[in-house]
Amino acid sequence: MSKLYIVPTPIGNLEDMTFRAIKVLKEVDLILAEDTRTSGKLLKHFEIATHMHSHHMHNEHKTVENLVKRLQAGETIALISDAGTPAISDPGFLLTRACVENGIDVECLPGATAFVPALVNSGLPNDKFVFEGFLPDKKGRQTRFLALQEEYRTMIFYVSPHKLNKTLAEFVQYFGADRPVSVSRELSKLHEETIRGTAEEVLKHFEAKPAKGEIVVVVGGKSLK
Predict the structure, then answer these.
(1) Three-state DSSP class for residue 183
(2) I need a surface site. Which of 8, 84, 153, 183 has the fewest CB within 10 A?
(3) In degrees to the nearest 10, what's the CA dihedral of 30, 101, 114, 150?
(4) What are the chain's domains?
(5) For helices 164-175 and 141-148, what crossing angle results, to 10°?
(6) 206, containing H or E segment
(7) Rounded Cα distance, 219 and 154, in Å
């Protein structure tokens, strides 16, 4: 019976792979991978021999129609990204939407997503939060910051290491030097760490010690007081 499975993969520690994810990846007809070289190492580790096709941000617009036809013909397909849950700042939305529109079953397995542990261990309010993902590089960046100045919920950002200090400086500029910030990097990996403090304090820390690895930044919202 045709179905699209959205399968999370570990964000670092391979022990975070679930038994169910391994079972699905072994049983489907095809695995769509963001980078087949990266995913090939994962599949080899768990002795998964299922055939892979490349599915990434540069080709997903062109491949969706054919994938929908394959699913309609009765195939089962699993979608994975390099790390974490597909469609969360990764390819996956277009294919998922197309399946929903065409009445094809979609099942998303629970699993690794970087922003959840970063939010929880930040110590910032997590009863209400907004996931911003990656900020625009240039066009629309200032507009986004201006809109977020009034955001009272905790905000979550994905930031590349070479843009971290610039982004923290912008937090100081737009949110204020004393806005609480938590930077988590290399989550679930050997050198995992979380640095907490005001925007100014955290900026000074990473100016003295440049960050490396995958980074999630959690920022407190505007005080309602």
Answers:
(1) strand
(2) 153
(3) 160
(4) 3-108 (3.40.1010.10), 114-219 (3.30.950.10)
(5) 50
(6) helix 199-208
(7) 6
